[in-house]
Design a protein that fits this description.
Chain lengths: ~110, ~120
């Protein structure tokens, strides 16, 4: 069964500093990988996804993520954080066969300090 | 394009009652999945509907049931509510496919916040 680990519950970053959110997954083959963002009281917005091909994927709002098969990781990065990036970030995995559900990590709350 | 819509936005119920939540998928999508997000947790998959049938189910009791209508909209029903059912319930829609990449891309609605007292 798939699983996702986001080891950081909270992260505080100064505005303008770089950001990296960690995500490790467990799956027997190459999965589909996703990063979602959730603002308070809101649903989930897809930031980026990896299905195959280039292991560095670009997303919306200046985010990118790198798939590293050897480390079973899919870390999210942003070179310069803006105050509006403060939110909850979820990494998710889905199997690459059939009609698979999304399995989410427990999330990382990003706080941005002035 | 209205995206995925859910109703109601908020709901307060008491233990033992029953509740129905509704979801309209994004235009062009025919598959609907439901997720439960407890406070401080990531969403957990409840079930998925396609062609008016439950196609997959997560680890949730039979008190959780659903329905999909011919227009692809969906309902989530929860019977005999428990305090632990308090959560944000998210609906996600996706286009059907042959199991390829496009199928797994799910678009989420804003959710229904259920509080059980």
């Amino acid at each position: 069964a798939q699983s996702v680990t986001q080891p950081d519950i909270h992260i505080t970053v100064s505005e303008g500093a770089s950001l990296e959110l960690r995500c490790n997954y467990s799956y027997g083959a190459t999965p589909y990988l996703f990063w979602y963002v959730q603002s308070p009281g809101q649903g989930l917005q897809l930031l980026l996804k990896y299905f195959s091909g280039d292991t560095l994927v670009q997303g919306i709002k200046g985010f990118e993520a790198e798939f590293k098969r050897s480390q079973s990781s899919f870390n999210l990065r942003k070179p310069s954080v803006h105050w509006s990036d403060a939110a909850e970030y979820f990494c998710a995995v889905a199997g690459n066969t059939g009609f698979q559900k999304l399995v989410f990590g427990t999330g990382t709350r990003l706080l941005v300090s002035p | 394009d209205a995206g995925v819509t859910q109703s109601p936005t908020h709901l307060i119920k008491t233990r033992g009652q029953q509740v129905t939540l509704r979801c309209s998928p994004k235009s062009g999508h025919d598959t609907v999945s439901w997720y439960q997000q407890a406070l401080g947790q990531g969403p957990q998959f409840i079930f998925q509907y396609y062609e008016e049938e439950e196609r997959q189910r997560g680890n949730f009791p039979d008190r959780f049931s659903g329905h999909q209508f011919p227009n692809y909209s969906s309902e989530l029903n929860v019977n005999a509510l428990l305090l632990g059912d308090s959560a944000l319930y998210l609906c996600a829609s996706s286009p059907s496919g042959t199991g390829g990449a496009s199928y797994n891309e799910q678009f989420f609605g804003p959710g229904t916040r259920l509080t059980v007292l």
